[in-house]
Amino acid sequence: MTRWSEDQVTALAPDASSLSAARKLASRWRDTGQHDTALWGLCQGSGAKPYQTIVDLSGPAYKCSCPSRKFPCKHALSLLLEWAAGRVEVAPGIADFAGSWIDGRIAKAAKPAAEAAARTANPATAEQRRVRVTAGLAELDVWLGDQVRTGLAQTDRSFRAFESIAARMVDAQAPGVASTLRQLPTAVVTRADWPEVVLREYARLHLLITAHRRLDELTPELRASIRAHVGYPNPAEAVRTEPAVRDRWMVLGVRITEDERLYTRRTWLYGRESRRWALVVDHSFGTPGFPADVPPLGLLADADLHYYPGAAPLRALWGERHGAAEPFTTLPTDPERPGTVAAALADHAAALGDDPWLRGWPVLLVDVVPVHTESGWYIAESDGTALPVAPTEQPWRLLGVSGGHPVTITADWTIEGLAPVSVFTAGEVIDLARLDPVGRSAPNARVAPSSNAADLTSVALLGTARRAPDLTRLAAPVADAADRLPADPALRLLESAALQDVFARGGVRAATAKAPEPAEDDTRRLLPHVASGRLSRMLQEKSPFLPEWFTAATPYDYRAPDALCGQLLDQAKANTELREPLLRLAGTRGRWLAGQHPEWRNLVRQQPATAPTEEVWQFGQPPERRGWLAELRRRDADAARETLATAWPKESGPLKAELLAVLADGISRADEPLLEAGLDDRRSDVRRTAAGLLTLLPDSAFAHRMTRRADEWVRVEHRLRHTELVVALPDTLDPPAHRDGITDRSVEFTYRWGGAPDVTAGRLRQLVAATPLGHWANVLGTPDKAVKAGIDDRFRQPIFDGWVDAALAQHDSAWARALFDAGVPTDVAMLRRRELFALLPMADRTRHLLDLDGSWLSEIEALLPAMGHPWPEPLAQHLILLLFERARAAARRPESHGNTPNAHRSLLSAASVHLPVTAASAATVVARRCGDPTWERAFDQLAHDLNHRSMMLEELQ
Q1: What percent of the chain stands above pLDDT 70?
Q2: Which contiguous run of DSSP H or E holds residue 280?
Q3: Residue 521, pLDDT score
Q4: Is the separation of the CB atoms in 88 and 41 below 8 Å?
Q5: Which of 265-274, 359-368, 757-766 has the lowest mean pLDDT?
């Protein structure tokens, strides 16, 4: 039995949550095996007895002792994933618990097969059904005539009206007709051109009814097509009696759709020798559990196909396979079937001539380029010959794969236009429906109907009782045929519309479109295939591990596969934190693609790949100018300062403060004159930025001015046993104090005293924050002594807040240690404590957390963000043991809510992101020792996440 790919397994998942849960069970399997089409294993769950899971790969079919009602359940999916990954060994025989079920399935399958072979159709039943269908279609034909006779604008177009006549067709055993009628209300509600759509479908149905009425006069092939469109059953046993067509069938496209829990898989096959198309359609109710007989996308197999009988045979059943599936890297070439637009239109016209009710026909277009224009999408050849893309399609992913270079496209040519299914490039078939649509923009413009069709539509809207159709305005071939149509105006309109529709679809002329300039090549190494697949899933799931992935990938400087560029740009648009690494990974192809999309153009700088020039500083956008100045500052601090000083008088707006903030990188006394000029600026944000930067220069004139004010406004009085700080701020601030940034910012500082806002406290905090910490060390001693000074209750909080501001701005670890140990009396104490904690040496931070026991979990969780990534190994072990203590407490007291994993959900989530991946084994050991099932699942989830991160990092190497 050929091992399945992971894509085949994931396609079986009933939903995303089941697949996600299945991936988490990888470490729980034992006694697994595979023999022929049988696959089995034991999966340890929350109970003492493991779940027995069996998969019959020939179905596939599933059996599991778990209580899940999903098929396949997460255990069956996990077992299949293990097998696909090569972690299940081939066994000489089937395990006992699996053998009985497999044997039972074989016996059960043999009996119906024998019955089917002996079963023959009952002529009386078939004739009875035909009579019922004929009567129902005759009733529908009268209804259709009444609709256009009265006028579409006056008839009832509600869902109820269409459902009523559709239900009548179901009663008449014409489900194909009923399905068409049920789709019309959606078109009426969602499309501006609904009269044209409704008239076209009415005409199509009338033509089908007329053909069914003359069924016995037609050829067997056309008779079979009509019966299929009406909805007559065609049993698989009967189809398999049709002649087998053996070929090496290549899988060029797969689409899965769902309608009211009925999943439908369409697989497009192309014969390597016969050059014939085939469409295999499988249905599954409830879950997408389709047979695994058809190879996955990109593989071919030597096999027999049995076509459903019809005038233009396309749908087929998979027959006997004559060899294992294998990949293909080339497509056959045939001068008689060149894969051009003209050949595609000719093939479609021929098929439509055989079966005028066809809704689509597969086409293979070789060496074409997707083109996005203001009027919509096109698929164009090198000479500009093009076909329009259906308005519902937005093939940005296809455009990313192409990059303006020729590719081979498999598509379905429909009345609306091309619906791309897959693209073949560089020896690989890429599924265009694999991901959610990316880069959605405005819908493509629909092709305006011809004046002939528009005239018929206007008559249908008004009704033939008010206006008769002028058939002389139709195309000449249609008008000639219309002379022989019935005299009844309503029927004459329907049949004229049917003729016009088939004539227009069969006689489509190619459009023209100019291909864009192709993207330049990106010479960087390609991201490994396994890593790109994982990244795609992580982007879809908005995984919290993405920052770590990009950090680990940065040294390798990979470029993303072209098919991933659209998804990366979509994420970059929404995720500002990861925008730069996302765009870097998208690379040259991503920049080219962003230039094509109106919502992506602003994501990338419209600059050449060479280093930015001084023109960026003079004429660039604000982000570009700021980036240019920051880069110059890193290379030459003096040049950046001089450049900014030269432009300073002309700068204005919010950008002025942002440019001044660039000086923080490598700030020195040489920057002081420009910063002093910033204190005199008219904009308050510029003044605040300048004052904040000057506090970083302890020897500046600004620092000396603040030190003098601190001496005057905060006196130090040494008492017998302690030191006292006495605050005496002036009631009114002088202009120099205002210039240095001491203002009445009541909105920013909400200190209160005596029931009213305390403006003085706010001024005090600004003073202390801007004063060099060395001043307080000179007058109070070491930071440990300073924080023990006596302070009036009114001013204690603003002074401590000012010290914290200064310690954080000046990155003083000694003051940070003293303030952290003393506690910070403020409303946002925990956030401030974390910032101070982050200034301590890593060894001190780790030692502090290791000294805290389980009663301090809240404190630990609040401080952990200051521990960087990943957390130190001793801290990881300590944290797992503390959580294990909670698990043991939960087992002893199940009724206690505070001991459940939900009560520590945020801590567990942070641990899964920041614990070192080597802690996975410890989490697994603890999970097995848990007496509480909810904690066991929590630790298993933690171990799974750590293993996921480990594999994620290994795949990048």
Answers
A1: 94
A2: strand 277-285
A3: 93
A4: yes
A5: 757-766
Q: Outline where DSSP puts E strands in 193-272.
A: 244-259, 262-271
DSSP β-bridge partners for residue 307: 316
- What integer is the mean pLDDT of 905-925? 94
Element of type H or E holding 417: strand 417-425
CA-based nearest residue to 659, from 673, 647, 672, 676:
647
Return the DSSP state at 866. Answer: G
Of 836, 708, 726, 823, give the one whose Cα is nearest residue 772.
708
> With DSSP H G I counted as helix, E B as strand and the rest as coil, what are the percentages for the chain, rounded to 5?
50, 15, 35
Query: What pTM was computed for the model?
Result: 0.80
688: tokens are: 């605040």
Query: Where is pLDDT greater, at 60 or 601?
Result: 601
Three-state secondary structure string covering 674-686? HHHHHCCCCCHHH
How do residues 1-16 score in pLDDT, each as one tens digit?
Answer: 677 777 778 777 777 7
Alpha helices in 246-394 (DSSP H): 341-354
Structure tokens at 54: 């069996």
Distance CA 25, CA 299 (A): 29
Cβ(798)–Cβ(762) below 8 Å: yes
Question: What share of the chain has pLDDT > 90, as a percent?
Answer: 61
- Burial status of residue 344 (CB atoms within 10 A of its CB: 0-12, 13-18, 19 or more): buried
- What letter represents residue 745's amino acid? R
* Residues 861-884, mean pLDDT to the nearest whole number: 94
pLDDT (mean) for 70-82: 88
Secondary structure in 3-state letters for 45-108: CCCCCCEEEEEECCCCEEEECCCCCCCCCHHHHHHHHHHHCCCCCECCCCCHHHHHHHHHHHHH
Whether the predicted pLDDT of 830 surpasses 50:
yes
For the residues 100-123, what does the mean pLDDT come to?
65
Report pLDDT for 824.
59
86's CB contacts (< 8 A; 6+ apart) are 3
Helices (H), ranges, 577-683: 579-594, 614-619, 622-635, 637-647, 655-661, 672-678
Q: Report the alpha-carbon distance of residue 945 to residue 912 in Å, rounded.
A: 6
Q: Is 595 exposed, middle or buried (0-12, 13-18, 19+ CB in 10 A)?
A: middle
Position 292 pLDDT exceeds 80: no
Q: Provide the mean pLDDT of the chain.
A: 88
Whether 503 and 389 have beta carbons less than 8 Å apart is answered as no
In whole angstroms, what is the distance from residue 589 CA to residue 542 CA? 23
- Residue written as token pair 């506690």: 823
Task: Decide: residue 903, CB within 10 A, 0-12 exposed, 13-18 middle, 19+ buried.
Answer: middle
Q: How many CB atoms lie within 10 A of CB 240?
A: 14
Q: Which residues of 17-30 are buried (b: 16+ CB within 10 A; e: fewer)?
A: ebbebbbbbbebbe
∠ at Cα 679 (675, 682), nearest 5°?
Answer: 125
Positive or negative, the CA dihedral 47, 49, 50, 55 is negative
**What type of residue sits at position 330?**
T
Q: What's the CA gap between 352 and 503, in Å, rounded? A: 10
CA gap 747, 749 in Å, rounded: 6
**Start-to-end Cα distance in the chain:** 32
Two tokens, residue 817: 């240690």
Given a contact cutoff of 8 angstroms between Cβ atoms, the answer to whether 72 and 80 are in contact is: yes
